[in-house]
Amino acid sequence: MLKKIIKWVGIIFVVLIAIGATLYLIYLRPFMNTMKQTTTIQYDNELTIILGGGGNSGILNSDSMVLVIDTKQDEAAEQLHKMVSDMAGNKPVLIVDTHFHPDHSDGNRFYAGQTILAGGTLEYWKKRVGDQTLPTSWLKDSMNIEVGDEMVTVYPLGKNVHTANDVVVYLHKRKMLFGGDVILNRQAPALMGAANPEGYLATFDLLPNVFDIQKIVPGHGEMGGIEILNNFRQYFIDMKTAARDGSKREELEAKYKDWAQIPFFMSSGATIDVFHKQSINK
Ligand SMILES: [Zn+2]
User: Fold this and answer.
1) 101 CA to centre of ligand 1 in angstroms
2) Residues with CB under 5 A from ligand 1 (ion)
3) Where are the beta strands (DSSP E) in the chain?
4) What is the pTM of this model?
5) How does pLDDT run across 135-188, given as a tens digit for each residue?
6) How far is the CA of 99 from the centre of ligand 1 (A)?
């Protein structure tokens, strides 16, 4: 009897390892590799957008200061910092973190002595990131910052969306929104911890009313226009519909089969599960 149990535990163990390895090789490794790649877009004389290498980043250069939106992770964070230092010289650098996830804020470690602005509190961040990557200043309300001839609004969402303390950044002259992971382009969201799909839906309604959005730099994926927000809104509406009506699930999930996904974690199925859990908790 015991031998049989041991044998079966062994078989289950091997099968689980095989499934894990397959998922890693098919989904996670290619995803991690594309995450590492960066693309630099010289949008205009002052604005540089660096896609990938963690979350997408922006560098807005002016005569008096340099604004950086999200500091990336690993080598890409180091490369970003080099670019920023070359532009800044002796000018001060102001950093905005859209949220605490390391793919967006790990590069904070390179900016000791500069101001790093974020949503939430020191206590909140201390529980989630290392001492080396803590922001220095905490947004209570939205804040306007003049960077050269651009007016920048740093806008904390004040509710659970991707995290409990997401911040978006709007460039008025360019009519451009940096959405952090509240807005993704053709990628399923990772909804962990405080993430709330209803918070996303409320935010998609709110943002176009607050800002005239012509251009969007999403947290991940290519930059584009307002269609990125509309497509991501439709994704959440579709997953909510699928959570309520199982007969539509297959068809609605198939709509997004070309999006970047990781099964169980960052996928249409995972989003539907979160909608399910939420309606049970209500
Ligand atoms: Zn991210």
Assistant:
1) 6
2) 55, 103, 181, 219
3) 38-42, 47-52, 57-61, 66-69, 93-96, 115-119, 137-139, 143-147, 150-156, 167-171, 176-178, 215-217
4) 0.90
5) 999 999 999 999 999 999 999 999 999 999 999 999 999 999 999 999 999 999
6) 9
